[in-house]
Amino acid sequence: MATPDLNLLVTLDVLLAEGSVARAAQRLRLSPSAMSRALARLRETTGDPLLVRAGRGLVPTPRALELREQVSRLVQDAEAVLRPAEKLKLQQLVRTFTLRTSEGFVENFGPDLIARVSAEAPGVRLRFVQKLDKDSAPLRDGSVDLDTGVVGDTTGPEVRTRALFQDRFIGVVRMGHALSQGEITPARYAAGRHILVSRRGLDKGPMDDALNALGLQREIVTIVGGFAGALALAQASDLIATVPERHTGNLRAAMHSFPLPVPAPEFTVSMLWHPRMDADTAHRWLRGCVLDTTQGNLVNPVEGADVASDVSRLKIDIKVNN
């Protein structure tokens, strides 16, 4: 099959817009005979007369009417692709970016990110939506501009990623809780009453596997779907919450946090985007804002924490908010 002449799309767009061979020829700076030959080629290619005589003028066929908007859009897209990229003018940029984030991201990084964006580009609005799963479809269809979270097996192979920071699980209790004093051993931790955070409603998590390896088992009193709910319950009771450190910094400000007494792997939190946004200057600016904001100072660090600075060296995928 012969490759179609894509130049005919421009000719067809002008013909359908003008409804006249003479006016289309003038607009494209062609002779009337050259435009007539182009119309003949279009008729042959599409298998439709496209424009037919009606009195002294031409009228579009139903097929031409069907193609008009589609052809116009294709030509506009092609022109945008071939047009040199304009220098980004942040003060004049008017755009809404949709960010899909895990729970805790907005509470910890949202204020600084919004302040940075507002100062540099006052016409930009950020829309935060909750991340319910790791499906890459919203990035593909454009309903989400930027995603944050742990890269998993379900992440699309074409998706671009950039590591933001490492996180780890810690224990959190209310001030005055028994675990807010003294050494926290695996036995003391397991003996408490626990809150399990599970987005999918599972009845155990990674900490249970770590405790089982030591011959210990904890009592899970309740299961909640998010870290904010777990911390609210822990603050108002004697329950123990186990949550990511960086993602919950502001949420646990008035609580006692402690390193877990059992092995818990660190995990890398990344930002993800579709490759079609790589060269978009406004999107690149946004990615820079997110990177700078998330790599700032740790909020409410746990005593004894060893937060690694090289987030690219560790590639561990664990179930966060499983």
Written overview of the protein:
This protein is an alpha/beta fold. The protein folds into three domains: 7-82, Winged helix-like DNA-binding domain superfamily/Winged helix DNA-binding domain (Arc Repressor Mutant, subunit A); 90-168 and 267-294, D-Maltodextrin-Binding Protein, domain 2, CATH 3.40.190.10; 169-259, 3-Layer(aba) Sandwich (D-Maltodextrin-Binding Protein, domain 2). The protein contains ten helices and twelve strands. The strands form three sheets. A five-stranded mixed sheet has the order 4-3-5-12-6, with helices on one face. It has a five-stranded mixed sheet with strand order 9-8-10-7-11, covered by helices on one side. A two-stranded antiparallel ribbon has the order 1-2. α1 (7-18) crosses α2. It is elongated, with a radius of gyration of 29 Å.
Keywords:
five-stranded mixed sheet; 322 residues; D-Maltodextrin-Binding Protein, domain 2; alpha/beta
